[in-house]
Design goal:
Layout (H helix, E strand, L loop, with lengths): L2 E4 L13 H19 L5 H15 L2 H4 L11 H10 L19 H24 L5 H20 L6 H20 L4 E2 L6 E3 L5 H6 L1 E11 L2 E11 L3 E9 L2 H19 L2 H7 L4 H12 L9 E10 L5 E12 L2 E4 L14
Antiparallel strand pairs: 1-6, 2-3, 4-5, 6-7, 7-8, 8-9
Helix pairs in contact: 4-11, 5-6, 5-7, 10-11
Length: 344
């Protein structure tokens, strides 16, 4: 049966139970439901679907890696921290610019300048490499961020929180440029903290529909109906077939040939930055853990379609999902997701 997901809202119902045995049964069912819906790793179809859905909905190839082999032995964030941020971290005894932490206009202006400059560079990297080549993206991005921070702030300071803040802000901004945004009010219901915007996907795929939106009328928030461009993407696993024993053996051999040079590159990378002690060992370990060739027990080839509401297929993604233990992961060393970045 094909796996299908759509972006929907969910409203929980209220249930009244009397007998203790019924309560126990309901709790068991709720636990099973929560487990199976939150954790996709036990189904190759769901892993493939989640990976594609994350990218296609907002162009977010960064968070898609949570479903990939690169995150098998460490969280993707920890991998990035150890493999790409360590050379630039300089948070021990290095003074920051005087305005940092003041909440002043100078601090806000500096942060905006860095984020906007890095956003343009992020889009450039995305168009040049795509996030399938995370090594090129992160290597170049953090080197550039270090330069831009020094130019704008006038200090030598850098920590991982700042680096993640800049990168993840760029990821979010890029996603919003595709999906568009709704107007958001502050708690006083008269201060607008986010303006409404039309996204690229709305222009490309949207049809004009009546939508309830919040507007400011006589200095008060009011809900009205406006015409907006509306679209919906649905991802469906069209096919997912496990490889035969012979095919599996050949696939693992090919995967091993792809991953071993990467896994063995950590020491050379660390030496190129003159890293020592913990920073060096952390980088070496981060890359070594990428090699999962001895742990793969099964591989499935999956095909995922992306469709509009009228059934029009706008993208088809082929990928391989590998099983290690009881969990499945997308093999990020053998996938080209460029077709999922529909804005291109």
């Amino acid at each position: 049966m094909a796996e299908t997901t759509e972006k929907k809202s969910f409203r929980a119902g209220a249930y009244a139970v009397i007998a203790g045995v019924v309560v126990a049964a309901v709790l068991v069912l709720i636990t099973i439901f929560a487990f199976t819906t939150r954790y996709t790793a036990f189904s190759p179809e769901k892993v493939a679907q989640a990976y594609v859905d994350t990218i296609v909905q907002t162009g977010d190839g960064y968070n898609a890696y949570k479903n990939a082999l690169v995150s098998k032995n460490a969280k993707f964030g920890d991998f990035i921290r150890n493999a790409y941020m360590k050379p630039y971290v300089n948070d021990d005894g290095v003074e920051q610019a005087d305005f940092v932490g003041t909440g002043s206009e100078d601090e806000a202006a500096a942060l905006d300048k860095v984020y906007s400059t890095m956003y343009d560079y992020y889009v450039e990297l995305l168009n040049t490499y795509g996030l399938d080549d995370y090594d090129a993206v992160f290597s170049n991005y953090f080197a550039k961020l270090s330069e831009v921070r020094k130019e704008v702030y006038g200090d030598e300071y850098m920590d991982t929180d700042y680096m993640f803040g800049a990168f993840e802000s760029n990821v979010l901004t890029y996603g919003q440029s595709l999906t568009g945004t709704q107007r958001v009010f502050a708690s006083d219901e008269k201060t607008i903290i986010q303006e409404q915007s039309t996204g690229v996907y709305q222009t490309m795929f949207g049809t004009e529909q009546d939508v309830e939106v919040d507007v400011l009328v006589n200095d008060k928030k009011k809900t009205v109906v406006e015409k907006q461009l509306v679209y919906k993407f649905t991802t469906t696993v069209k096919e997912c077939t496990e490889l035969s024993a012979e095919e599996l053996e050949a696939y693992i051999a090919d995967y091993s040939a792809r991953i071993k040079p990467v896994a063995e590159s950590g020491e050379a990378k660390a030496d190129s930055f003159n890293l020592v002690d913990d920073a060096k060992s952390s980088m070496i370990s981060a890359f070594e853990k990428l090699d999962c060739s001895e742990d793969i027990t099964s591989v499935a080839k999956c095909t995922v379609d992306v469709t509009l509401e009228d059934g029009t297929v706008i993208a088809t993604q082929e990928l391989y999902v590998v099983e290690i233990g009881n969990s499945w992961y997308v093999d990020n060393t053998n996938v080209d997701t460029s077709g999922l970045y529909l804005a291109k």
